């Protein structure tokens, strides 16, 4: 299954989702393409095949085991637990933090927001902010926030195409200008914005900040977010394995037979090149920027082509 992209204008967005990923955007400030979502108000609609026009939630309601997988359905019911996006940061995103499951449930009746980033394209000297340079505390954090020196205590990391970062909840972070990113996260749209570089909109208004909410959501320890991983051709190379999702990297240069257990759905995100999936004698073609959902009922498929592909499922 493929889905209609849900395009989001952002103050920091640009045009690379069109120029790099061939998305049909009309704005010069498109920041996000939500590829696969069941967030309230932003539910993905199927764009191909016999189920074209149906929402993902409708299909889950009709065939939960077959789509989600027996283990996923048992754990999450008819909720789709992940959200998949592509982002284009023409400017820096705000510095922000996401609450853990406990806080998010208590305050927003939502999942927390553990996430990972795969850097698809990076301008020269592009960087991200991830966590603190050294162990900090609430008092030091608030003092620097008030003095507008927060950046001095946050870790600033230069990045390049192919880099992966895994951000557990509580990690203060920001995607920097000049990046196109594939993002995999829990199904949640809860973000606490703590600093926005004093930006204002056309009317002179700054965006809402959530400084008080963020205070006890932040992990003040120094964290290691960078993920090293193997890149063996035509093989699933593990990148991230956490309680919320597993992500593998497939450098496809030929063919790969993928067998599935029925426990979980699988999602493929094409981050470079193009490839085909053959399933039950039918061939489907995908290119850079495409995202495809493989229902759990599919037991076997063949991937072929020359591409870099992220493979995501719940283990």
UniProtKB/TrEMBL annotation:
Family matches, as Pfam families: MPI_cupin_dom, PMI_typeI_cat
InterPro entries from the UniProt entry: Carb_Metab_Reg_Kinase/Isom, Man6P_isomerase_Firm_short, MPI_cupin_dom, PMI_typeI_cat, RmlC-like_jellyroll, RmlC_Cupin_sf
Cofactor: Zn(2+)
Record: residues binding Zn(2+): 98, 115, 173
Swiss-Prot/TrEMBL keywords: Isomerase, Metal-binding, Zinc
Ranges where the Phosphomannose isomerase type I catalytic domain occurs: 4-109
Catalytic residues as annotated in Swiss-Prot or TrEMBL: 193
PANTHER family named among the record's database cross-references: FRUCTOKINASE, TRANSCRIPTIONAL REPRESSOR MPRA
Protein's recorded name: Phosphohexomutase
Organism: Flavobacterium flevense
Taxonomic lineage from the root: Bacteria, Pseudomonadati, Bacteroidota, Flavobacteriia, Flavobacteriales
